[in-house]
Structures are given as C-alpha cells and as structure tokens.
Amino acid sequence: MAPTGPRNGAPRNNTRSAASGKSATRGGIAKRRAGGPIRVDRDGDLDMDAAAANAAGGRGKKSNPAPAGSTRKSTRTNASSSRPPRPTTKASHMVAKMIQGGTGSLHSRISQGIDPSSRHTRSSRPINGTNNKTLIVEGLQHSKARDNEGGGLKELLIFLERKATTAGKLSHSVRIKKSQLKGDLVYVTASKEDAEHIMKVNGFDWAGTKVHITEADDQAPNGAEASNLSAQTQDVKENLRTMLAQRYDPGQKLLNLASLGSDSLLIQMNMFQESTPQKLFRALMVICDEQFKTAQAKRDAISSVTLAGNNIDDVGQVMTLTETFPDLIHLDLSNNSIKELRGLRKWQHRLRKIETLLLINNPIDVSNPSYKDELVSWFPRLQNLSGTQVRTAEQVAAAELANKPTPIPQSGPDFRDINGVGEQFITDFIRGYDMDRPTLAAKYYDDYSHFSLSVNGRSSHPPDIPLPQWGSYIKFSRNHVKITTTHARQQRLFSGTAVIQSVWQKLPATRHPDLATQFDKYIIDCHPISGLADLSGQSMAGVDGMIITFHGEFEDQDPETKVTTKRSFSRTIILGPGAPGRNPIRVASDVLTLKAYNPLPPILGAAVANAAVPVAPQAPASAEEVQKQQMLAELCRQTGMNEEYSRMCLDVANWVFDQALATFHEKRASLPADAFTVAGPV
C-alpha cells in the first residue's frame, strides 16, 4: 500500500427498514399504481412484478399453463377498465437503458460516466464512457515542438500512437479517436484497450521533455466546468509547492517526503479523499519536474530523498521518483511495509548512482534476511545498506575502472609495399586527383574498373564544427543504408574510363594535404592480396595485387556557391596488373566514403608523424640502462600504465620488477585515469 491519510469513523448505513408494517423503499423506478400492469415486449426487457400481476384494473397477458401442483393464480381479471396502450419497443429499450445505466444519485451517475444533465452537449459529453477512456497528457507546453505549426499537437499524437503500439508489442496500431488542447493539458480519447497501452508511454522522453499521462476525471475539458477545474488545479499546485518547499532542505540537498499521510497541509486539502496516493506522489514529481527543468539542475538541487513511514509495500507505487531523480545518491525507505524482494525489483535497473539505501524496520528484514546480497548486485555504487557498509569507495572505483570499455589499441598503419609500387601510386594518385583527373583516370582506369561514392551523413564529428552540405555529392552517393533498391544501386556503380571521367568532372575540385610535409594528416594501410582477375586470361587462379586504404582530409569548393569546405574521407583502392599494351598498374576497384570533418586521433597521428621524422643517432646505452628500459617496457605492457607512472612504480620498488608489479596491483584502484595508456590496464 502507498501512503494513506487518517480515516474518520463513519456510521454504517442500514439499507433495510425496521421490522414494521411499512415496506422498504429501494429506489429505482416506481411501478404504475393505476391503469394496469406494465407489459413486457417480446424480448422481455422488463419483468413484471408479482404484486403488479395481482393488481386490479388492466388486463394481463395470457401466460403459459402452470405446471402440475402449482398454486399460481391466473392474472386475467374481469375489470371493465380500458386496456392501456402497449409500450413500443423503442420506449421499452429506453426504460431498460435507464435501469441498467443507473438512476441513483448524481455522484454515482458521474462515476459511471453518465452526464448528469438531461441532454448531452459537445462540452458535456461523458468522458469515460462504456467503451472509451479519456487521458490527460502533460508536457506539450514545455517541449521543443511547441513552436511547430499547430503547437506540436499533431507530433505529440503521432508519438503517443507509435510508442503505445511498440510498448504493447501489438499487431494492430493504437488509435486516438479524438484530442483537444486546453491550456497546458491535452485530452485524448481512445478505446479502453488502446488507452491502457497509451498509459505505458507515461514518463517517456519526447521533444526535450517528459510526457506525463493520467486518467481524466469525469469532468469535460470544455465550458465552465473546465475553467473551474483549471482554477482548482492551480490552487492544488500552489499548495503542493508550498508543502514541498517546507520539506526541502537546500543545505543538505534533502527532499523530505516522510509520513505524507500525517501531513497537516495534505489533510487540510483532503488529498487522500480526492486522489489516490499514487496520483498524489505523481503530482509531486510533476511539480519537481517543473521546478528543476534539466537533469543537471536536479542533480545540483537534490541528492537525498526520504520516503520513510509511508506504508509502501511496492516501489512501483513511487516509480516516478526514479524518473524524476534518476541520479539520487541517498534514499531512505525505512519504516515501510516492504516484505519481499519483488517489492523492490522494479528498481533493479534504476538508481545506478545510489550509495546509501536504508530499509530499516521493513518486514523484509525478518522474511528474507539475505536480501542484502541481491541488492548489492543490483546497485553497482551502493556502499551503505541499512547502516551496514557493503562496499568501499575504492572498490566502487576499481569495479568501474574494470568495466570501463577501452578503445581498440592502435599500432599505426600496416604498410607492406612491394618494390615501392604502393608508395608511388599513392603519391601520383593524390596529386593527379587534385590537379588533373582526366589524365589520372586515363592512366590507371580501364573498361573493367569500378568507382563508387558514399556519403555518410551520420558520422561522428566535433560539436563545434558545423555539418557540411552534401549537395554536390548526394546524387552520386551509393550509401546502401539510403539506397536500398537494386536498380538504384546499379545506377550509382560507375564502370569504365569514360564514365568515371565524366563523374569526376562533376565533383567539386579538391586539395589534399601535402604528403611530404603533412603526413600526420593521413593513415595509410597497404598490403598485398591475391586472386584478382587476370585480364590476359593466362591464369585461371587469378593474379596478385595490392589493396590500399587511406584515411585523411581534403578541402573542396562547391562549383556553384564557391564555398570551401573541409571534409574527412576514407578511400579503398584495389590495384592489379594492367591489361596488355596499357599501363602496368590498373585500378580494379575504387570506393570513396565522405564524412564530416573529424581530425585523426592525436596519439596515432603523432606516432605516424614521428615515425616519418628522421632521428639523430645517439650514443649506445649502458647494459644497466638497457635492462631498465626493458623492465619499463614490460611493466607498461603488463599493467597498461603509461611510461611516467611505470617509472615511478619501479623507482618505489628500487627497480625490482616483481615488487613493482605487486605495488601496482595494491594501488591500482586509487590510480587516476590518466595513469593509463589509450588501451587501458590489462
């Protein structure tokens, strides 16, 4: 159970009358006292009362003969009164509908979705009828879509239908029958089945905000009732804000939500009579969302929450806490009614930063004392569980370091050239592509050569660099993610010298960095391959060739706008022996991929650049220095530490390798992140 307010004793209503000569009145539609009994239609919508069967006046309908031994009397009378008019089928159905729909008090009719007025208008139509349910959606006015045409309502409805269908794993699409925007609220009506799936979208992120969905009260969103509801809602919000302000300690970043059932202001507002505890708690979280707009603002304002003494037996009742404050560090659930682990299981994959969790004076301490081991595995940063230390800060840091993904280690380019063919081709190719493309194509490309271009518009790039325009390239792009039909893919695969020359003429002019002076702007791999097609037809097994892949950057100029743009590229070229009578080297395949500019990794680029710079000869090192360098390199390899920290570790151990390795394992958890290389510790 969730937090509840105090209950006042109330006298029980005795629906039975005292033992007297008077009959008890049960309400409903009174029978006619004169003019004969009400007849039933052929469908039997109304049942004839036994007393009405014996009433004088009117003539009853002839019934079937009574069974043997029955004392039932005939209902036929000899009264001389005229026969009352027989009610039509339509009238009978109307009366039956009133009986079945309920004719009790105004409150009961509203609770059943029946409009209390005698006639439905567009603004007083029942909200939660027999087959439909109306929901209230909040979040549109705080979203990025509010500036769209139509205020973003259309986009919100499409989002709700799509996400509800996906969340429910339905074979049919969820459909919203009607919607209405009133102030900050959106009223949507759907079938009861679809409305249940729409409720699953509650708390989802949309357009920079969270969507909050609640069931609508049985009041229409139009007319005077809506205006009164809006004013009343504002009063409730102000009172709840006041209550939260009284319970907030900014010094300790603590939000005290303990013992809500005995809060005097909530009792004065009759919150526990007019709203369920779950709805009350959801309303409190909505106000917190409005107060703290961003995740960082919530982290800065509130790090601790106490929910002690609220009679909570399942955290699902306060689930919105983890949606509003997912980065809580301290949480107090003491003095509640949690009996089993399943009462906490809904938080298993939430509150990943929680460090303190108090469950003191909950029945689970007696029913399942081993629950603490399970909770420790749920929350990776948990250190204090009900006053018991279950981890140290060092253990948390070591576990996070061990689980931290490390990038794939880069060892520099793999350049295995044969007789300088690769180096000569790359130099010639980059210069020719910038200066004279027709001649380059005529030299290396033939009728069996292929060229294709792919634009990757979703590649990573620095946030301070704007995305480039792709107008000059996009019509030639063969990106298989975007181009999915066979015909379109074939059209964008260019074969033959003449076709490739024609395409290259339509592409913007480029300027690559100079290979001789700016080699750090490139990553180039080159190695031999076998099995290429032999154009001379002499070898059925194929011939040897070479595959070259180089990554880098270039600047181009749009031929129409004359705008210069820097881009990153990757190019994979397969070289093979040329056809008889032509250039000895031919391009069998050329695949060019263009991306937004993103500099090469600095460490790898520096390593490549340093490899190309000649180093002055040094005096030979002593045997002791050589041994130290070997120990230093081995410690770096085994631990993943950089050279500086490895040398410090060896200095502490007086250059005894085993002792230095033991020191590393002892101090590993306390080492800073910058103590390790790109690959991280082994």
UniProtKB/TrEMBL annotation:
Highest taxon listed in the record's lineage: Eukaryota
Coiled-coil region: none
Protein's cellular compartments: Nucleus
InterPro entries the UniProt entry points to: Leu-rich_rpt, LRR_dom_sf, NTF2-like_dom_sf, NTF2_dom, Nuclear_transport_factor_2_euk, NXF1/2/3/5-like_LRR, NXF_fam, TAP_C_dom
Stretches with biased composition (Polar residues): 11-23, 105-115
Chief place where the protein resides: nucleus
Name this protein carries in UniProt: mRNA export factor mex67
Organism: Apiospora aurea
Origin organism lineage: Eukaryota, Fungi, Dikarya, Ascomycota, Pezizomycotina
